[in-house]
Amino acid sequence: MASGVNSGYAPLDVTVAGKPSNKKRVAYFYDSDVGNYAYVAGHPMKPHRIRLAHSLIMHYGIYKKMEIYRAKPATHHEMTQFHTDEYIDFLAKVTPDNMDSFQKEQGKFNVGDDCPVFDGLFEFCSISAGGSMEGAARLNRGKCEIAVNWAGGLHHAKKAEASGFCYVNDIVLGIIELLRFNQRVLYIDIDVHHGDGVEEAFYTTDRVMTASFHKYGEYFPGTGELRDIGVGSGKHYAVNFPLRDGIDDESYKSIFEPVIQGIMDFYQPEAIVLQCGGDSLSGDRLGCFNLSMRGHANCVQFVKSFGKPTLVLGGGGYTMRNVARTWAFETGTLVGQEMESALPYNEYYEYYGPDYDLDVRASNMENANSREYLEKIKIQVLENLRHTAHAPSVQSTVIPGATFLGGTEEDDDVVADLDEDENPDVRMTEHRQDKQITRDDEFDESDDEGDARPKLHGSRINWNGQRRVNFMDFQFHDDVEMEISGSRESVPSPPLIEVDVILAAAAANAEVNSEVMDQKSQILVAEATAETGPSNAPSRSHSIKAPIDPDGDIEMDEPAAAVSDQESEAEEPISTAQAPLSPAASIPTTTDAVVAPTPIPETNIKMEGESTKIPLP
Ligand SMILES: [Zn+2]
Prior knowledge:
The longest helix has 24 residues, at about 500-520. The protein is globular. Helix 5 (about 120-140) packs parallel to helix 6 (about 170-180) and helix 9 (about 295-305) runs parallel beside helix 10 (about 320-335). By secondary structure, the protein is of the alpha/beta class. The protein folds into two domains: about 25-420, 3-Layer(aba) Sandwich (Arginase, Chain A), CATH 3.40.800.20; about 430-530, no CATH class. Strands 6-5-4-7-8-3-1-2-13 form a nine-stranded mixed beta sheet, with helices on both faces. A two-stranded antiparallel sheet has the order 9-10. Strands 11-12 form a two-stranded antiparallel sheet. A hairpin with a 2-residue loop joins strand 11 and strand 12. It has 15 helices and 15 strands. The structure holds zinc ion (ZN). Zinc ion binds next to loops. The site of zinc ion has 6 residues, from loops. It is found in: Nucleus.
C-alpha cells in the first residue's frame, strides 16, 4: 500500500500494474451478420473468422461473464467524423455491379486491389465501425470497464483512402468518441503490420499516443520507423517499435511490457484502445512473427492489468482457426475465465483438426530479433517517452541529456545503424502479393492453411511500379507452414538478399520517408484535429443488448427475426456536469445531444425478452 503521508483523503482505489483487478464489466459487441460478408475470391481477409471466434466464445461459456450487444451500425454521417464525405459517399454507392462506372474514384480512393469492391461493403464497414464506436461510448458512460469488438481494428484505413483490406477506420472513430470524455487516449497496436492509419490520424496531437509494434523492413505498409515520433504538438506522442521476423513470446514480452509500462508512467492515459491483430501469431498466412496464443494474449492481460477503461479490437489475422482460437482465449482473459485446452464441440469443429486444441503454438522459426537489437530500440523508445510527461494537462519539460530521435544527423546515424539491413517498401499490396501465392478457391475452408503457399513467390510490383524479380521472396521465407501428419512445423530457409537490392531499397526508403514526413509536417494541427473532431456530432448511446442463445446465434442461415427492444439502461442524456471533452482543444464543445435509439431492422440474434440478461443454460 502506499505511503505514509496522510492527505486527509480516503485511500485511492489504485489498481497496481501487474495485478489484475478482480471484477471488470465486459461489454462484447457482435453482429451475427458480419460473418456473411466476403471479400473477393481468394482474398485472405475473411470476416468469417469473427464468427469462428464467436462460436468458441459461446461454447466455452464465456458469454456468461459479459454482456453481449449488437451495436447500431455506424451511419454515413458518423463515419465522416474522420473520413471525407466524398470517400464515404463512394463507399456507400459502389457495388460489384456498378463499379465499372467508378473507375476514376476507385483509383483515387485506392479501392480495387487489396481493397476490392464486394457485396455489402458499406454494411460491413458499418458493423465494424458501429461496434468500436459503441464500445467507446459505453466506456465513456462508465457502463463497462472493457469493451470488445473483434470486427474492429481496421487500422490501415485513411481519411480518404482504403488501404490494406481496411476501408473505414473504426479505431479512429472509436478514439474520437473516447476523446469526448478523456483528455488522453493511448492506442496500442500488436498487429504484425504498422498501425499507420491510426498513427497518421493523430500524428499532430498529444491527445492520443499511438504505440505500434510491428514488422518493419520490406513489409506492408512500409511505415513505422523508430524515428517517426509525431510532429507539432504530437511530437513524441507516436511510438514505433520496428521488429524483424520471428519474434517469440519471451522477446515480445521483454519489449512490450517495459514500453507500455513507460507509456503508462509518463503519459498517464485515461483510456486505452488495444488492437489485437492476429497476424502476429505464429503460422499466420501473411505474417512473419512467431507468437503463440499465450504470448499474444499476454499483451491483453498486461494492458488489462492497469485497470483503465479499455476498448479491445480485432485487426489482421489470416489463418482463421488461429485467429479464432486466440480471440476466444483473449476474451476469456478479459473476463478472467480459465479455458480448457480441449476445444468444446462447435459447428466449426473441423477447422481445428487434427488436434482440436485451443493453443496456437510457436514454431521453431528463427528469431531475427537479437537481444541487443531489441534492447537498443527499447532504450531509444523509453528515452523518447521522457518527453511526454502527462501531456497535455501538464507542461512537458525539456529533460537535460535526453536523446531525441527524429531530427539531428546523429539521430539519423542511430536509426541508420539500427535499420541498416532494413529496406522497407511502400504501397505494397498485400493482396497482389497474396494472389501470387494462393489458390483462387476462396470458399474452400482449408484455404487459410499454410499448405497453399509455395515456398517461393514470383515477382511483384515494387515502389516504383516496376516489376522486380523476387524482391519479396524473403518476406515469407521462414513462415511456410507445414501440415504433415498432424504436426505444425515451420521450415526456415534463410534469405539471400542481393546487395544492390538492399541499396536500392534503402535509397527508396529514405526518399519515401522524407516524403511521408514532409506530408505529415504539412498537415496543420488545426486542420487535422478539426477534421477528426466531432465537436457537434451526437454521442453514441444505443446498442441492443443481445441475450444470446449460444447455439442459435451462430447459424448463418437462421431466419432473421425482428428486433424491437432496446437497451433500457444508459440512454440518459449527458448532463452538463460531465460535459464531454472536445477532441481538439481549439474547437468549442457543445454538450452532446443523445440520438433517439433507432430500432435495428433485423438480426439473427435471438432476443429473449426486453433487455434481459443473458440466459444461462
Ligand atoms: Zn496486419
